[in-house]
Amino acid sequence: MGQQSLIYSFVARGTMILAEYTEFSGNFTSIASQCLQKLPSSNNRFTYNCDGHTFNYLVESGFTYCVVAVESAGRQIPIAFLERVKDEFSKKYGGGKAATASAKSLNREFGPKLKQQMQYCVDHPEEINKLAKVKAQVSEVKGVLDRGEKIEMLVDKTDNLRSQAQDFRTQGTKVKRKMWVQNMKIKLIVFGIAVALILIMFMSICRGFSCLH
């Protein structure tokens, strides 16, 4: 893979290009700039294909990192380049003059850095691929851990529901017992009243205890 696999790169704040580098001429620079104007501002990665080239963008914290590559370069090399450029740019200018720099005013300082990173990524494709695999494995492990946390949350919710169900059953048993006691009290009162009425009627008819003689 030759150096021409990565042919143009820039760093922009919003839609303003602060630093760029290329050793080639062509309409890819204007296409990359036009795509920049239409990019969403949300943090994300974007890749467009045009005329046998890929236009790769990484948007993060208001800054956009771009590299134009030939299609044969694939995806891993351009993405690795963008990540490396983002890290170096953030380390060099984080919270500094990049926030107020004018168009292409960082060319002299950061243009050579873009060249170095392009050369490094092109000259070390095996290392880039290994790093990409490691990152993929880390992401997979993180996904498993996240799923583990979700499973724990589900188990906790299940335990809570089981506890609530047990409390509900206990409370239901207490309510049933209380209602049974109240029901028995009512029955005893009704029985007592009935017995009293029978005694009153008996005594009224028999005038006391004369019916017993």
Keywords:
alpha+beta, 213 residues, 4 helices
Number of helices: 4
- Number of DSSP E strands: 5
How far apart lie the N and C ends?
130 Å
Structural class: alpha+beta
User: If strands are numbered along the chain, what order do they take across the biggest sheet?
Assistant: 2-1-5-4-3
Taking all Cα atoms into account, the compactness measure Rg is 41 Å
- Uncertain residue segments: none
Q: How do the SSEs run, as a string of H and E?
A: EEHEEEHHH
Helix content: 55-70%
Note the quaternary state here: single chain
What amount of the residues lies in strands?
A: 15-25%
Biggest sheet character: 5 strands, antiparallel
* Average pLDDT number: 86
Outline type: rod-shaped
Please describe what this structure looks like:
By secondary structure, the chain is of the alpha+beta class. It has helices at 28-38, 76-93, 107-123, 125-206, and strands at residues 6-13, 16-22, 44-50, 53-60, 63-70. A five-stranded antiparallel β-sheet has the order 2-1-5-4-3, with helices on both faces. It is rod-shaped, with a radius of gyration of 41 Å. The termini are far apart.
In terms of topology, how is this protein built?
Layout: E1 6-13, E2 16-22, H1 28-38, E3 44-50, E4 53-60, E5 63-70, H2 76-93, H3 107-123, H4 125-206
Antiparallel strand pairs: 1-2, 1-5, 3-4, 4-5
Helix pairs in contact: 2-3
